[in-house]
Design a protein that fits this description.
GO terms for molecular function: DNA binding; phosphorelay response regulator activity. It contains 7 helices and 15 strands. By secondary structure, it is of the alpha/beta class.
Length: 252
């Protein structure tokens, strides 16, 4: 069973997170720390105790924006340890996802934390640590091919796929761009490429997937190729340029 440490400078949020973690059957113990400095002292004690010791910690659920040493700073320090605990970021801000996964975070959970979303993060951590207890039972509904579910501030929204102009890879996440804004989802770009190929999405670069119907212009300039999607110009890699030109020529 996992031993967890939750770190957040907001006391009500910290207490709620510790409560939810202790309610998960895969968590043996969960305790809290109110800032990164206190957490670092607790983690040092855990490392001195050893993996099987009474003070051991398997996973840290870590807020990012805290006074003094912030969550990203603490995670960077942990990468220098010989046997660091796993890290799950729990934050109200989606803008740090790329940095988080550069630090090998297990997951990135947005506040306010939903029980089922936290359970998924625990599952990922348990999987990495080899825990075998079953996940809590959560209702599962079949996917809707015309919409994709995104999470914003603890609220699930259903974005029509036809509204998505292009998709940008950001680590283990993908950023979905629409004319009204963007949304971050934890789905690899390659998965979306396979899922949406029949809906007119085409890879133009290792980092970009574009909906053909939203391409306004194809631009050629000194051997480089780019497309205009709305007001944004995106580069097309040489590998994908010919296929894209052929597809656009055949477009009704």
């Amino acid at each position: 069973m996992l031993r967890a440490l939750a770190v957040d400078d907001e006391r009500p949020t910290l207490e709620e997170l510790v409560y939810l973690l202790n309610a998960d059957p895969r968590i043996g113990t969960a305790e809290g720390a109110s800032d990164a400095t206190e957490a670092l002292r607790r983690i040092n004690r855990a490392l001195e105790s050893g993996p099987g010791g009474p003070d051991a910690i398997d996973v840290v659920f870590l807020d990012i924006q805290m006074p003094g040493l912030d969550g990203l700073d603490l995670a960077r320090l942990l990468t220098g340890f010989a046997r660091p605990p796993l890290v799950v970021f729990v934050t109200a801000h989606e803008d740090f996802a790329v940095q988080a996964f550069d630090l090998d975070a297990v997951d990135y959970v947005l506040k306010p934390v939903r029980r089922e979303r936290l359970a998924e993060a625990v599952r990922r951590a348990a999987e990495q640590r080899g825990a075998t207890l079953p996940s809590p039972r959560i209702p599962v509904h079949g996917p809707d091919p015309d919409h994709i579910t995104v999470e914003l501030g603890g609220v699930a929204r259903f974005v029509p796929v036809d509204d998505i102009t292009h998709v940008e890879a950001q680590g283990d996440y993908a950023r979905l761009h629409t004319v009204k804004g963007s949304h971050l989802v934890r789905i690899p770009l390659a998965t979306l490429e396979e899922r949406w190929r029949a809906r007119g999405f085409v890879r133009i670069h290792r980092r970009h997937l574009v909906a053909l119907r939203h391409i306004g212009e194809l631009r050629l300039d000194a051997g480089t190729v780019s497309v205009l999607v709305g007001t944004e110009e995106l580069q097309v890699s040489r590998r994908h340029a010919r296929e894209l030109r052929d597809l656009l020529m055949r477009r009704p």
